[in-house]
Amino acid sequence: MSLPKDFIWGFATASYQIEGGAKSDGRGPSIWDSFCAIPGKIADGSSGDVACDSYNRTKEDIDLLKSIGAKAYRFSLSWSRIIPLGGRNDPINQKGLDHYVKFVDDLLEAGITPFITLYHWDLPDELDKRYGGLLNRVEFPLDFENYARVVYKAIPKCKNWITFNEPWCSSILGYSTGYFAPGHTSDRSKSAVGDSSREPWTAGHNLLVAHGRAVKVYREEFKPTQGGEIGITLNGDATYPWDPEDPADVEACDRKIEFAISWFADPIYFGEYPASMRKQLGDRLPTFTPEEVALVKGSNDFYGMNHYTANYIKHKTGTPPDDDFLGNLETLFYSKSGECIGEETESFWLRPNAQGFRDLLNWLSKRYGYPKIYVTENGTSIKGESDLPLEKIVEDDFRVKYFDDYVKAMAKASSEDGVNVQGYFAWSLMDNFEWAEGYQTRFGVTYVDYEDQQKRHPKKSAKSLKPLFDSVIKTE
Length: 476
Ligand code: GBH
Known about the structure:
14% strand; 13 strands; alpha/beta; binds ligand GBH; globular
């Protein structure tokens, strides 16, 4: 098993999860600042106000990346640092923009390739208040296009761009379950606003169009001189039938991936939503205008893949409820015959299953014509990690094994199955603000001591990736 000679690898983070500096140098609030302020939304009542303080520790973070051998670093920009109010007629905050310009310069000087995500869920709060944020089909894509243009222009040295991180999460968790900002849901015990039957599909559609607009601007105005690449990052789990003998469970496995991934990837590669979604959702799923198809179809230079886990899938019968977003099925950890999908972690949704990674890489490659894939996130939490003493935490053998298994599964997909995977980012460079779960759940290869000035302590896993990649990347 092997990975291609020029394979690029490193670590990933996201602005709101690590930066802190919530009010520094003119940053405006995002929907996550507002969401965290609502009692009960974040498990430990915390927020990203300080987080890992990375806004003030760029040198320390770059030194860390260097010391553990990273060739690349994927991070996201805080839109409201750059344009505090967010909109295309709102002022630019030069200090916020300069921060990222310098960060990219410093990374390059350290020999680390930057991969910039434009949007990892932290919408400028003003845009949500002004016109409903992601729900606005006209304003949101235009404001995102403007923000993207401002950034491309200021950071010509970055050659790797990701428009959106996991639009599924922005749409479903933001507008169906209400688990993420802005917290809309039909469940009136959780939110006074929201319509889970329609809003998530509207938000998803507008994210696709905004992605298309940002890609068009890059290709027309910047790519000819800058020569970089741009794509979107989608999340999705591997699926196995609960009962392999039941054709309805086998079919539900594909449907689950279609509702998670093809919802976005089919419009990008084929210009329309999957048939399974159109059938179940009817007119609740928007239809693309010809102008929108022109923006969205063909808009990926690469496929960004975030992947963590697998599930057994059991089909459901009867008409699904209006708020169903899975595709009329159940996700389970045990199969009919009692096999377990993987060991427990600190995250209720995550159980390691490296074979699933290989299988999903193949599934995506077959459906979308073997596109170039960057794995933009992969990693794990560990059950009870936060309760251990520091000397035990840094001996994170469970995480070391997770990376070992997953990277080898990816190498087999590359050299034995013909999957065109060219890059990999471990999630995450350091423990950070794990959204609604607060700081209890840790995904870092580096321990962050929130009680002692966010001091960083690399874990065993931080140092395990370089030898692992050295052993599988071809040398010629
Ligand atoms: C990533 O998403 C995020 O990009 C990253 O910011 C985050 O820190 C990392 O995961 C670790 O969580 O609430 O039952 O509907 C991974 C994909 C999809 C995993 C949604 C959690 C919640 C399922 N995520 N899922 S549920």
